[in-house]
Specification:
globular; six-stranded antiparallel β-sheet; about 40% strand; six-stranded mixed β-sheet; 4 helices
Length: about 550
């Protein structure tokens, strides 16, 4: 059995190989059904996105909504992006947006034009972006050459802070489709019966690349067969690379689902068989159809990243309409983005089915539909999280409208740790944790006590208050802070607590708590993971 950082134990057979039983029943999350005897909170801020940490409470969970930019931060402007006025595009689609602490730059890899270029841009602040041609004289924005006979479709990029060699610090996956000279999807077949089928190029290939700087890329090889919208991410809690694959339901071959494949080595582990893939995720009965469209929802993609003590997932939920309807109307498909969280890296809990980011569905708007999160999901910027995403307007200078035109990049901002808060709605309430194993001596919280207050008391595993750490002894918090140190009248830390397992009872009065953590750092470093990077970090450091 493998024991995880939080004391969850995995079964000997991992990842699990489930059979699909229904198309609409929510999938189980075993670690919420059977919690460990204690929870190790040594890694990262502890988020209240589910009930994993909670023994009992009368607080109410409230989910955060990010603030969306009214205008895109990158949109089609160059000749490559404008694509002669046909299907204009300048957005990651999946691609990637990361903050590179070595160069102190936000970096973006994006789709320029349609079925054309993999391009690069960077920014100092995440809002004002310069393309590669503006940064490097004599260089185009394109960072990958064409593969003869193929056109670039989807891709995914990752900034690997743990790469074994510098030339693998950036990793990329690109899915290519084979087209004929008229740019029609080409189903390659031998021209003559005696032709060798092995000499006929496959109609689709997925190619892996590596790079030391994210600009100059070297082809490493190809993967086994995978469909379009296949992406990947890194799980640092288990040191595994995860391929997130577009597959179809065994119960209904029309329904998109996701399959999971993990490997220790991103490149060497890129060959798999169908038996190696695990059915992983899909939509369910709580993913309600769009009122106007009315189509059965499907899971278009599932991307994830390590954030503090959890894997943060984004479900791209396809609301419709199908391709042939979009081709007639010229309007983009509708994808909405929803959040999910995992504490074992495989099972994702979906505490809310509300949209985290929504297609506007307004003709003429830059974000009409077809939303995709950028690989890396979000960056930490001070007290906020920045979420980069692609959206399509459908506006085409040549066609008037086209379902794959008008791709641009938006950014949404959320309070740090602000996915969910436990709130005392009317007056006073409390929350008692499960038994916690910890390291360090300083207790920190992320809470909004504007007009209210918060106190904490330390309990032994049986629930008895440890002398000197009662709620009455606590110096109450009355501020709105994403990092606030809790102290008591005669105790400035947990140093005098003579055991490594405790419970904490938080009492709130007109206040909301988003996270807590215990650390040896007086500055509040949590030793958690920071998604796609943080402005405040040195390269390779996972503290805040």
């Amino acid at each position: 059995m493998e024991r995880l950082y939080n004391n969850i134990t995995l079964p000997d057979s991992w990842p699990p190989h489930y059979r699909e039983e229904t198309l609409d029943k929510p999938l189980r999350v075993p670690y919420l059904e059977n919690k460990p005897d204690y929870i190790d909170i040594s890694v990262g801020r502890q988020l209240f996105v589910d009930d994993f940490l909670i023994c009992e409470t009368d607080l109410i969970r409230e989910f955060g909504k990010p603030k969306v930019s009214e205008k895109p931060v990158l949109w089609p402007q160059t000749s490559m992006e404008l694509n002669d006025g046909y299907c204009t595009c300048a957005c990651p689609f999946n691609g990637g947006v990361f903050y590179d602490a070595q160069s102190r730059k936000f970096k973006m890899w994006y789709h320029a034009g349609w079925f054309d270029g993999s391009a690069y841009a960077e920014s100092d602040d995440g809002f004002r972006w310069e393309r590669l041609s503006q940064i490097s004289t004599g260089h185009s924005d394109r960072v990958l050459k064409h593969i003869p006979g193929y056109m670039r479709d989807g891709d995914a990029v990752w900034l690997d802070e743990y790469a074994g060699t510098p030339d693998e610090r950036y990793k990329m996956l690109v899915f290519y489709r084979c087209f004929d000279e008229d740019y029609k999807y080409y189903h390659r077949k031998p021209k003559h019966a005696h032709d060798d089928p092995a000499s006929v190029p496959p109609k689709e290939i997925t190619v892996l690349y590596k790079s030391a700087d994210g600009i100059h890329w070297e082809e490493v090889g190809t993967t086994s067969h995978s469909g379009d919208n296949t992406t990947f991410f890194y799980n640092p809690f288990r040191k595994k690379w995860i391929y997130s694959m577009r597959t179809f339901s065994e119960l209904d071959s029309r329904v998109r689902v996701r399959s999971y494949y993990e490997t220790d080595d991103f490149y060497k582990g890129s060959r798999w068989s169908t038996d190696d893939l695990s059915f992983w995720a899909r939509t369910d009965i709580y993913d309600k159809p769009d009122r106007d469209l009315g189509y059965y929802t499907q899971l278009y993609n599932l991307d994830a990243v390590a954030y503090e003590s959890v894997m943060l997932g984004i479900y791209s939920v396809f609301m419709g309409p199908p391709n042939f309807v979009c081709e007639k109307t010229g309007l983009p498909k509708i994808n909405d983005l929803k959040i999910a969280f995992s504490r074992d890296g495989f099972h994702f809990d979906r505490p809310t089915y509300e949209d985290f980011l929504s297609s506007s569905r307004k003709e003429g708007s830059w974000d009409y539909g077809y939303l995709h999160p950028a690989n890396g999901i979000c960056t930490v910027v001070g007290d906020e999280l920045y979420f980069y995403y692609s959206a399509f307007s459908g506006n085409s200078p040549h066609f008037g409208s086209h379902k794959y035109s008008g791709g641009a990049v938006g950014v949404a901002k959320l309070r740090r740790d602000g996915f969910a808060g436990m709130k005392a709605f009317h007056s006073k309430g409390s929350l008692t944790t499960e038994i916690l194993k910890y390291q360090g001596e300083f207790l920190f919280v992320n809470a909004d006590c504007t007009g209210g207050k918060l106190s904490a008391e330390i309990l032994d595993p049986e629930g008895n208050v440890i002398p000197g750490y009662s709620g009455q002894d606590c110096i109450v918090m009355t501020e709105d802070k994403t990092k606030y140190r809790i102290t008591w009248q005669d105790k400035k830390s947990l140093k005098e607590v003579r055991q490594d397992k405790i419970r904490i009872r938080f009492t709130l009065d007109h206040a909301t708590i988003y996270a807590f953590w215990i650390t040896e750092s007086e500055e509040g470093k949590s030793h958690g993971y920071l998604a796609a990077g943080s402005l405040e970090l040195k390269a390779g450091n996972k503290d805040d």
